[in-house]
Amino acid sequence: MTPQISPQDLERWRNPDWRVRLAAWWEGYDLSRLPRVSDRSALRNSAARHRSGPVDMVGTAAIPAASAVASSSNPALPDPAAGGNPELDRLALMQLDRHGEPVWSPARSEGAQLLWGRDMTGPEEAAWMVDSVRSFGLNPAKSVLDLSAGLGGTARALVESCDTWVTGLEASPLLAKLAMDRSKELGLSKKAPIAHYDPEHFNQAGSFDLVMADRILHRVRDKDLFLDRVGDCVKPKGGIALFDYVIDGTPGSWDSWNAWREEEPMEVYPWTATRMADELTQRNLDLRISEDLTRLHRRHIIDRVRKLADTLAAAVTPPAPVLAALKRELALWWARLRVLGNGLRFVRYVAMKPA
């Protein structure tokens, strides 16, 4: 017996809202080929489902402005995208991509948090990052330098979990500002300060018990200088934890490889896994761990994308700039997924500095 589809499900299939369209776009389906019912019927049924009115999203056009995203499980996020903050716009323009557009905008910071979670800009959750460095025995007497602070989620999680002191540095002036504002809001401006820096001219003063960086080194052209400075920042018996992309043999598809490099906002310069290990050893560092985390990294990405549907289902429609930035974020990570495990690997390196 052929199963019957309910009228509600049929209507949802024929006239998907923007959440369904976004999910279908990520999965590679073309919903524009589906038959449509009449506009009047679509409006009537959409109004019955969404009291706030109809929503039309084809690509990123024709989306009405809405209030900040809010849900019971995800507190309302500030909406700099809708506020037109001149200071944030100025900071965004300080770091431009190869096409002359801001690498990070207020809208992208909001879209990234919808995808990765509050105060996060990547797939590795703050709790997972804390667990990955727990073996360093962080405590109130120790200090950490985070060279990939982003919005400060990991830095503040380390403070709250280990009661340690974390100095966060971030390559994006905009993210550094938003991260520091958040630390001030939570009363952690002294234990988790975040500041802007240029990885190409890294010259941090001071010494730390742990220096960590997530997906930074493959974007640095002068890696030799960067690693020299990292070594200078580590105390004797201190540690280094690097999470980064490295080349693994020949790409499975040169088309995918070139598409990934083109999709990246900035140029990328990944080393091979062997060279990365050799460069750490040559700096008189004791390389303890060289662990391939590609599969886990892919799972983290895919799991967060799947959770995005639930996040959006519980959210008020985000403003159009945020949705456009979210679509851009998904396109970037889709390009990365296509090469991860097919010429590119995600590896964790842990090294110690001798006494």
What features would you describe in this structure?
- The structure is a single chain.
- The chain has 355 residues and is of the alpha/beta class.
- The protein has two domains: 1-64, no CATH class; 80-355, Rossmann fold (3-Layer(aba) Sandwich).
- Helices cover 43% and strands 14% of the residues.
- The chain is built from 14 helices and seven strands.
- Strands 3-2-1-4-5-7-6 form a seven-stranded mixed sheet, sandwiched between helices.
- Helix 6 (106-116) crosses helix 14 (320-339).
- The radius of gyration is 22 Å and the shape is globular.
- The model is unreliable at 31-82 (pLDDT under 50).
- This is Class I SAM-dependent methyltransferase.
- One of its GO terms (biological process) is methylation.
- Residues 145-239 form the Methyltransferase type domain.
From the structure above, extract its key features.
alpha/beta; 2 domains; 355 residues; Rossmann fold; single chain
Main CATH class of the largest domain: Alpha Beta
Sketch the topology as an H/E string, one letter per element.
Answer: HHHHHHHEHEHEEHEHHEHHE
Q: Please identify, by name, the CATH architecture of the largest domain.
A: 3-Layer(aba) Sandwich
Annotated CATH homologous superfamily of the largest domain = Vaccinia Virus protein VP39
Structural class: alpha/beta
Mean pLDDT: 84
Helix content: 40-55%
Could you say what the CATH topology of the largest domain is called? Rossmann fold
